Amino acid sequence: MMWQLFAGALAMLALSAIFICWPRRASAQNNQTPAQLFEERLQLLALARDAGELAEQDFSTAAAELKQQFLEQEQQAIRYQQPRHKAIFHLTLVLLTALIVGLTYSQNGHYRQLSDWEYAQQNLPAFGQRALLGEGEPMGERDMQLFSLALRTKLAKEGDDAIAWMLLGRVWMTLGMLEEAVESFERSLKLMPERTPVLISYSQALIMLGGDLNLAKAGQSVAKVLMREPENIDAISLMALIAYERGDNEQATAAWQLLADRLEQDDPRLVVVQERLNELKAAASETLVSSSAAQTAGRSVSLTLQVSNELASAHPDAVLLVFVRAAGGPAVPLAAKRLPMQAGVLNVTLTVDDAMQPGWDLNQAELIEVVARMAVSGSVERTAQDVEVVSAPLEFTATDLRLALTLEE
């Protein structure tokens, strides 16, 4: 590409040189020579003298002046026609033109971009090895930009390629161009919708981009991975991070605890997970202390729920609905919480802050029932596939009621 650019520049200079020289030769061939002009004007003076319009003395003076002008013009023509002077003149014009073209292109041209484009295409395999396999020096920001340029060129020339879109998305994400990264991952998922590395990277970009809608999309992508690979460490970590970003500290704590149980003791990620767990526990303690005064006046229900492994394995996409209703009263819950399906022991606390509508909370009923339901469809409407357990009627003899239930088929 660069040699074509230089060839074009040389061609333009050659054309400029032709245009500089050609008009002067043409004017010299088409106009009268100085000798012809001198003879014509001298004849006009002689006619004026013969007609009595010009005295003899005036004729002699005018003829002398005309002769002097003719001699000066002849001397100038002789100097110009000397090859050395003509060559210097034309060479000066050509060099001046070249200088103007060079300065203009150096300020406004795109030769650097063209050079980078050629370099990026030639080194695409090397960039790929450095990015995927970690071979060679770590890639800096400029290398990432060149890598993205090469990938975009490949996609433009060869059409959609799932791996190329995935790599481009990772490059965009590294450069902080999150919206472009999300778009690239979506293009890759259209071609390979079940590929785990793409789903993980797509979720990471959505979490970094933020927003409720993006977090919901990230949760769906992570769920797809966990359905096929329940032990995927990256997916469990992202599930905890999504819950943390949503402000659901209970689910985040459960997910990070699950991650901590699966990591090896010498895994460097375990230290980070433990720090997050300690941070959440400290935040929970502070929240409990700060809200103790408000909760003293209100009521709460503390439930220890045991979910069987068989039930959780049979319905991994279901959700857990835990709610309190007035015994023999309206069907609208006094308090409710929605949790992800998981096996094991869950500690759930329902307070007046978990009311579903204003003016109808735990303070409004003396006799209550606690319900734990596995909702297969995720809806609050009960279906035939749902499994639930209901406590016996409980009376608020104390501000905080505690009980345990087991949910199993």
UniProtKB/TrEMBL annotation:
UniProt domain Cytochrome c-type biogenesis protein H TPR: residue ranges: 113-269
InterPro entries linked: C-type_cytochrome_biogenesis (IPR051263), Cyt_c_biogenesis_CcmI (IPR017560), Ig_CycH (IPR056412), TPR-like_helical_dom_sf (IPR011990), TPR_CcmH_CycH (IPR056413), TPR_rpt (IPR019734)
Annotated TM spans: 87-105
Protein name listed in UniProt: Cytochrome c-type biogenesis protein
A Pfam match: Ig_CycH
TPR repeats by residue range: 162-195
GO biological process assignments: cytochrome complex assembly
Major localization class: other
Organism: Alishewanella jeotgali KCTC 22429
Ranges where the Cytochrome c-type biogenesis protein H Ig-like domain occurs: 302-399
Keyword Transmembrane: yes
Keywords recorded for this protein, A-Z: Cytochrome c-type biogenesis, Membrane, Repeat, TPR repeat, Transmembrane, Transmembrane helix
Subcellular location: Cell envelope
GO cellular component, one term: cell envelope
